[in-house]
Design brief:
alpha+beta, 5-stranded antiparallel β-sheet, 4 helices, binds nickel (II) ion
Amino acid sequence: MILPVVAYGHPVLKRVAEEIDNNYPELQKLIDDMFETMYHSEGVGLAAPQINKSIRLFVIDASPFVENYPEAKDFKKVFINPEIIEYSEECWTFREGCLSLPDMNEDVVRPSKITINYLDENFIEHEEEYDGICARVIQHEYDHLEGKVYVDRVAPMRKMLLKNKLRGISEGNVDVDYKMIFPNKRRR
Ligand code: NI
């Protein structure tokens, strides 16, 4: 089932999400729906807050990046209760986008390498190191669980220039071909 994606400005995107346990109701169905929603909107990652669930869960399939970033090959994963436990000092800049901020891309600086501890969909614990585009997508999704979106990480001057555009997104004043929830939608 395709779920509506919450747009920028919605309070759920500012909340720190809660951990879940393996009694979470219909978790596998939720994970399937999140992948379906992500593929439908041509995203490479989707975090639960973006479908209005404030829980620590995100899904990633970075394989569309494989042509330019070989490390993205077969990188399809579910992350539950993740914790990034180490960041490299070295950083790089990449132009990010987000399903909650349609029709917008901005350069974001992030650490190149991370170590993450998480549970997979079977609640098996993993500790893994990632770099390149995989580390990038993971950090973007992880931010959603911490109540952040990528525009919170662009330079303040730049963010100021984006103010009107961001307001437009929250009001639904944007061209998008997947279903969304706009927090400040105006009646016309
Ligand atoms: Ni996002």
